[in-house]
Amino acid sequence: MVRDGMAAALRPSSGALLQALQISVYPGVGGSGSACCRCPLGAKRYLLTDNIVKLKEFQHKKVAVACNLPGTKETYFRNLEEKLIQNKLILKEELITLLHLCESRDHVELAKNVIYRYHAENRNITVGEYKFGPLFMRLCYELDLEESAVELMKDQVIVS
Q1: pLDDT of 11-63, one tens digit each?
Q2: With 90 as the cut, is the pLDDT of residue 83 above it?
């Protein structure tokens, strides 16, 4: 009980705390009214810190993968598209490389198709298998395609 009392004594009133947070996050904004009216249009809420998202590390890895790629990105994408059409086996390293090479919405759509194929081929192999979710999430975050990430992660075929 003493602990709760101490926390309450050190905590500012919720209205003051909310206003202080809004002013610090949105400088120049802080009047009265609803919070929606004070938020800039198109503002995003970031719930994860940079050290959790690890976007910089992902971007550095993308550059390294592109530099070490034998041939061109276009050739790599074309080869994977042919593998999908010909129903050939997709290897884990091919999918990891693909996720590091994607630069557009079309590339992400190809990556989703390859993930579905890879998942279908490896459905029975679950012990210690590589998880592509975090890598795909970083890719979608970087390309501002969050809805694609949510769509894939909600898909029960992939999740189960």
Answers
A1: 444 444 444 444 444 444 444 444 445 555 556 556 667 777 788 999 999 99
A2: yes
Contact between 152 and 136 under an 8 Å Cβ cutoff? The reply is yes
- Other C-beta atoms within 10 Å of 136: how many? 23
How far apart, in whole angstroms, are the C-alpha atoms of residue 63 and residue 101? Answer: 8
Token readout for 134 is 């975090």
The residue whose two tokens read 């705390």 is: 17
Q: How many residues does the chain have?
A: 160
Cβ neighbors of 126 (< 8 A, separation 6 or more) are none
Structure tokens at 130: 């590589």
User: pLDDT digit string (tens) for 109-118?
Assistant: 999 999 889 8
Taking the C-alpha atoms of residue 49 and residue 64, their distance in angstroms, rounded to an integer, is 24
The DSSP result for 52-98, as a single string, is HH-HHHHHHHHHHHHHH-SS-HHHHHHHHHHHHHTTPPPPHHHHHHH
